[in-house]
Description:
The structure holds 2 protein chains of 2 kinds. The relative contact order of chain A is 0.12. The longest helix of chain A has 25 residues, at 74-98. Chain A has helices spanning 7-17, 23-32, 39-46, 50-60, 74-98, 109-129, 134-143, 146-154, 159-169, 173-180, 185-195, 200-208, 220-236, 252-256, 260-283. Chain A is an all-alpha fold. Chain B is flat, with a radius of gyration of 13 Å. At the A-B interface, helix 6, helix 13 and helix 15 of A face helix 1 and helix 2 of B.
Amino acid sequence: xxxxSDDSIQVEQIINRLPAxxxxxxxxxxxxxxxxxxxxxxxxxxxxxxxxxxxxLGLANSPFFGLAGAxxxxxxxxxVLGMNTLRSTLIATGAMRVFPITKKRIYNREVLxxxxxxxxxxxxxxxxxxxxxxxxxxxxxxxxxxxxxxxxECCANAxxxxxxxxxxxxxxxxxxxxxxxxxxxxxxxxxxxxxxxLPAIVVAAIADHHTTVxxxxxxxxxxxxxxxxxxxxxxxxxxxxxxxxxxxxxxCLTRLGLDWSRIREWLVEIDAIVSRxxxxxxxx
Amino acid sequence: MSKPTNPPHATAAATxxxxxxxxxxxxxxxxxxxxxxxxxxPDMEKLRVILTEYLLAx
Lengths: 284, 58
């Protein structure tokens, strides 16, 4: 087990071994969180990193946001996207730079980022329908499995044993992680999100997206990510074998004020979101 | 939860084409296998119903 002796120290060591969120992203996020910040100030900060600007504009113009070609400069991005969406887009861009799609990893990062983007799209859609904060929903959906990439970055040598355990026990990945690594990707992802100073609600959603026994005061964002993750996997059944559907927390739909007939009505739109995400990842 | 094998552009996309009898049979088997692993959960049973109806619809 990687984290058997002193969990807190081991986790700190893992977090410290990970690449930091790009400085310009951190600086811009801190600026956006100030009440009196102007779009000119944020644009000026972002302009210091032209690679970041290109990535940000690529995502802003992707089919995901439906603004194809409308955002030509970082100044326009600040205006067209608005600060809330700009914040979540920035976090997405920064996280993708921390964990770029590279070869020779245990996990296929293209698949992980595709899943992340799809769940982000679905959670954003659900949040919009429920009139909740779409920015937090997008960020939480995008980063809900970020702990898997952190494991892959720092504990790659231990992952084959964990995957073997999962195969032998026919169990959930998070159960195998707990048994072999001593920690789940949800817990590690939450620590990383905390390290990146993301909002507490996003940290909670990452930490608890696989927690099924819940307290009544559980935040709705946690339930949205749990549901979004399940719906993505369920739709993948169309043409993918060996899918283990993630568990849904007890009372999830009730807390969200939803029922399955309403979700049935949403499936066409959610399917379309997945299609747009396919195109988005290929373009960014 | 799925095994991370297929590149994203090779995975599911919305399709309106009518399923052949063989595709329909494969899909039903896939749904049965996936939902049997989580049987007993009332929510999953309801998801199974709406998903089967949705994916098999022409």
